[in-house]
Structures are given as structure tokens and as C-alpha cells.
Amino acid sequence: MYTAQHFLILETGRLSDPHAKISSNRVARIFLFLGMCLVMLVLSSARVHASTNISSSTTEHWAWNDLIGWIDFYNTNSITVSSQKLTGYASSSAGDISLNCASTRIGNVCGTSNYSVRNDGSGNLSGWGWNDQYGWISFDCHNVTSSDCLTSNYQTWINSTNGVFNNYAWNDIVGWISFNCANHGCGFQYSVITSWIATTTFGYLDSTIFDTGVASGAQFNSVLWHGNQPLGTSVGLQLATSNSSSGPWLYAGSDGTSNTYYTAGADISTPLGYAMHNNFRYFRYRVTLTSNTSGTLSARVDDVVINWSP
After folding, report:
1. Neighbour-count burial of 137, counting CB atoms closer than 10 A to its CB (0-12 exposed, 13-18 middle, 19+ buried)
2. Domain that holds residue 178
């Protein structure tokens, strides 16, 4: 029984040469940085202004407060929602409502007052906005202490699949700021909608070519990987075998097609189909990593072990 091992480190960053030389046929140490590409849903440009990702549609960029009235999240052409934060400022009868000290109408004021509205990557907002007339606007009852939520449990949140704002923010003088008419019944249709949605980050790495040295072909028995897999992330492995060092390389998963992966967790050996990978001399594998939906966590693969016998 023989084992071929390929050691690698996957981190966010750049992708180095995938054809780096190996130190032997059976054991290779190659350090790569896998640059992940973000898969984003692109919405119609007619709905979102070029410099903001808030909807321009008539009923889709308004919040409401009983004292201030309508708050416009679009017409300043400044508000952007990302996976980490909100930037820019909304307009109202009381003046600007700033969502980030780094992007006010007069520029960066963080040296005077450091504040922002934060996004946890899944659409749950927290932190503070600011209005010169009425002061601080809280987007989460946990901003001060958790005990505040016992009196009034609120948090502004964005639906991570369609970009619709929900619930309320709070100001000690003017009270509740509603982001969606569904909060109290839609006598008049309004909401705030962004093109931002929570997405996973996806990337893959193809290994170098390994030679078993068995001219008549080897039998490939199992695959496993070592590393760490946080909750909500995934690791997928595929194997490609050939009797030529130039391929072709057809990466396949558990059903023998490119549509599936071996998805067992770390340190769990998974049998390979006997008929799929029998009597082949050369092999490569593909490692696929998918982050959690907020894009804040990813698995770490330290090494992949392919078990084969002559």
C-alpha cells in the first residue's frame, strides 16, 4: 500500500504558479496562495445608480420617521452597502443622516467622531449613524448594553438574498426610523433596497501531476485531507487519473462526473470508486473551497492524501 501526499497552504491572497516543481513523485511540498474570486449577483443598471447601490425605483429608497418624515437613501448618490459596512449619507428634512464618519458630505471626520454602521456580512446591521440636529441613531439595541434589548429589542437588518432593509433604527429624540412599510402595515408602499446580497466566496486549486511509477497502472483507493473547516464553509475534492502525463485530466467526484465532489470533513478517509480510477499511472486532484455566506470564514487545507496501491 502506497500513499502519495501533496502538502499545501491555502490562504486568501494571490495564486502562484500551479505548475511548480515537485520534490519527488510521491511527496511534494508546494506553498501556494489561493486568490478567491467573489461571485456576485449583478442587478439591472437601471435600478441602481452608478455611484450607489441603493435602488433608484420610486418606492425602494425611502425610510420614515413620524417627526422627520421621509428619509431618502438614494438622492445623495453616496450610500453604498458592503459586507462590512455602510458608507455615505441619506437626506432628510433634518439634514444629512451620516452612516460612516469616513464618508460625510464634508469628508472624513473620524478624527473628531469615530462612528459607522456595520454589516456582519449576513445583513445584520449594528453601530451608529449621526444627524447634526438630533444626534446619534442606533441600528442595534446591543450597541450600548445587552440589557437595553430587554426594554426594546430591535436591529436593522438586510435580507441577504434580495437586499431589502427591515425593522427599525432608534434615535432618543425623534424615536423610531422605519426602513420598510411592512413594519407597521403598508398604507403607503416604501422600503430601502440595495443591490448588495450576501454571497459565498469560491476558489479552487489544481495540484501538480503525480507519477505513481507503476507502468501498468495503480489502483486508487481513498482520499482524505487535513486542516480546519469552520461552520458554514465547505471543502470539495475531485480526482483525475490518466495513463499519460499530459492528460487529459477529467476531474471527477463521487459519482464519476465533474458535477460532484468528495465532501467528507477533515481527517475522514473517503473510498474512491474502484471502476473509476483503476490501472492509471498519473493523477492530479482539485481542491475547492467555499466560504460561509458572509464571506468571513473559509476552510484551511494543510495537506491532501491520496492512497493508492500498485
Report:
1. buried
2. 62-183
